[in-house]
Design goal:
By secondary structure, the chain is an alpha/beta fold. The chain has 15 helices and twelve strands. It folds into two domains: 197 residues, Vaccinia Virus protein VP39 (Rossmann fold); 93 residues, Helicase, Ruva Protein, domain 3, CATH 1.10.8.480. Helix content is 38%, strand content 16%. The strands form three sheets. The chain has an eight-stranded mixed sheet. Strand 4, helix 3 and strand 5 form a beta-alpha-beta unit. Helix 2 packs parallel to helix 3. The longest helix is centred in the last third of the chain and has 17 residues. The protein is elongated and about 75 Å long. The N terminus is likely disordered. It comes from Tetracentron sinense (Spur-leaf).
Length: 398
């Protein structure tokens, strides 16, 4: 209207929230809440593929392929790509992307649970027998030359992963911890994984004793794998850009796994890193800790469970997943500033039996010279030695 003012309407809060959570690009909207941040820098994609050390015979697992920017490069260097994608819109996008390409007639789509059935159906009688005995050869079947890309539509944390040699992925950051330990529990063990993580999570993975970010995640991961930082990635290399920077990390599973019960290990590490900057002597003087350990001690004595039976764990890889319950909660690793005396059991507090058990626990710490040491400074070897001393004394953590 001439001479009038145009009134600008402010977007509603609901509309603003929806806009912040969705990003439209290239005809498809990305959901930040689902961790959909697509790599848009082709030079970075090339660098990741190069640093992965992929062989021409490798079966590659990709988690969260999105629109296929990384998938295309992986296809050019590996024998086969198995992509796991939760969003059906992205699965359709992958189909569209490979239409009219040399891979167009070699793209197969599977819903979770159908993949292994299809692989089994295409294999020979001899190969079926091998698959029944061991699930480590699901990819090496007669039909392998009939397709190069398999897309499993489903939740990677819930689906049963097939055999793969190497994992290369730009993952949704909210599944970082459970996915890391799901991969490390996979059998047979893969050669390595090259994964994009949120930078702080990545730095926790590679942190060493004495580092500020050294935590349960660091200890548990490095017990099972060699972890190295490859490169830092700025947030502007993604579409839509995340709020924080990222890092690419290389994870190589240890072979063989250390001879330890992972349930016991996790129990010890949880206690030690609850207040990682306190001395172990003050941590193991806590009433709650002593009560828990004494309960386990009496239970095992009642069951007459021998130490040998506990240490022999023929299927210890089954329990690797217990380490995946690693919540990156900074509050769990920050001391509240309380005095050590507040954590201790007072000398005249308990009956003789409780006092005897306390001395037994502290005796183990003194035997290994651990009483004045702090979890934030200990290595995996130190924790393994400490666990062995406790177990020899009949004290267990699970």
């Amino acid at each position: 209207m001439a001479g009038g003012k145009i009134r600008k309407e402010k977007p509603s809060r609901a509309g603003a929230a929806a806009a912040a959570n969705h990003y439209q690009g290239g005809g498809i909207s990305f959901h930040k809440s689902k961790g959909q941040h697509i790599l848009k820098n082709p030079l970075l994609v090339d660098t990741i593929v190069q640093k992965s050390g992929i062989k021409s015979t490798d079966v590659i697992l990709e988690i969260g392929p999105g629109t296929g920017n990384l998938t295309k490069k992986l296809l050019e260097v590996g024998k086969m790509v198995i992509a796991v994608e939760l969003d059906p819109r992205m699965v359709l996008e992958l189909q569209r992307r490979f239409q009219g390409t040399p891979f167009s007639n070699r793209l197969k789509i599977f819903v979770t649970g159908q993949f292994e059935d299809a692989m089994y159906a295409w294999s020979s009688v001899k190969e079926r027998r091998i698959q029944k005995e061991s699930r480590c050869r699901l990819i090496e079947v007669n039909g392998v030359h009939d397709f190069v890309v398999c897309v499993i539509q489903g939740d990677v944390l819930k689906c049963d992963l097939p055999y793969f040699d190497i994992c290369v992925a730009n993952i949704p950051y909210q599944i970082s911890s459970p996915l890391t330990f799901k991969l490390l529990s996979h059998r047979p063990a893969f050669r390595c994984a090259v994964i994009m993580f949120q930078r702080e999570f990545a730095m926790r993975l590679v942190a060493q004793p004495g580092d500020n970010l050294y935590c349960r995640l660091s200890v548990n991961t490095q017990l099972l794998a060699r972890v190295s930082h490859l490169l830092k990635v700025g947030k502007n290399n993604f579409r839509p850009p995340p709020k924080v920077d990222s890092s690419v990390v290389r994870i190589e599973p240890r072979k063989p796994l250390p001879p330890v019960s992972f349930k016991e290990w996790d129990g010890l590490i949880r206690l030690c890193f609850n207040r990682k900057n306190k001395t172990l002597g003050s941590i193991f003087r806590q009433k709650s800790v002593l009560s828990l350990l004494e309960k386990n001690y009496k239970t095992l004595q009642a069951l007459q469970l021998s130490q040998k039976g506990l240490s022999e764990n023929t299927e210890m890889e089954t329990y690797v997943s217990v380490l995946g319950d690693t919540i990156e909660d900074p509050s769990m690793e920050i001391d509240n500033g309380g005095d050590d005396e507040e954590m201790e059991v007072e000398d005249g507090d308990a009956a003789g039996e409780r006092s005897d058990f306390k001395e037994k626990v502290l005796g183990v710490l003194k035997q290994g010279d651990f009483e004045e040491k702090r979890s934030s400074k200990l290595t995996q070897v130190d924790f393994l030695y400490l666990l062995s001393l406790f177990n020899k004394a009949g004290i267990h953590f699970s």
